[in-house]
Amino acid sequence: MRSELFAQRNAEVQNRDRWTLQSSKMLRTVITPDAPMIATKGAMVAYQGDVRFSHQGSKSVGQFMKKAATGEGGNVMRVEGNGEVFFAREASNIFMMTLEGQQDALTVNTANLLAFDDALAWEIKRIKGGVGALASGSGLFNLELSGTGTAAICCKGDPMVLDASQQPTFVDPQSAVCWSSSLAPQIKTDVSLGSFFGRGSGESIQLAFHGPGFVVVQPAENAVYTPQA
């Protein structure tokens, strides 16, 4: 059988590297018995070998309470075994962030998180002044990763990195991908914009960043979560 589909550029990358970008929109990972991974549910698109997926339990009482109260940690699963797992989400671009020590921490919008090394510690963080964000359906809780290891993050389009140390930086909560955990964003509500666009408009609510650190922004918005009756 012949087809352009079988061109080398579409073939699986064969190596034993932990993380390999199969393309800008597909990530290939290697799972071994001594190196499991944590992934968000729905991120796996294929796997090969003896790989198992299970619910990721809380590592502390505090983490359990936050997961129960927010549901934020309930969408992660444990990936273990021996094989290759491919991750993607809605053909979004993928990039890696490598953390290099206990003082190195990154906060990620869980809508943009694919997977991360099990060696990384993770904690659910609440954005200050988040009542307005909750009412609009924007992200109120996010995951903070710290320690030594790598995280894979997806982005709708090409990411842009903003330096928040030079001047106050304001980002639509649905467009914020990740940021330095040294930054403590707060919710800023623009009443005039809210009156103009309507209360459900993302433009009326922003995340306000200011201080030494960076913010990664995507040129699109994540879908607004609508609670089920």
UniProtKB/TrEMBL annotation:
It holds the Pfam family AIM24. It comes from the Bacteria. This is AIM24 family protein. It comes from Brevibacterium casei S18. The lineage of its organism: Bacteria, Bacillati, Actinomycetota, Actinomycetes, Micrococcales.
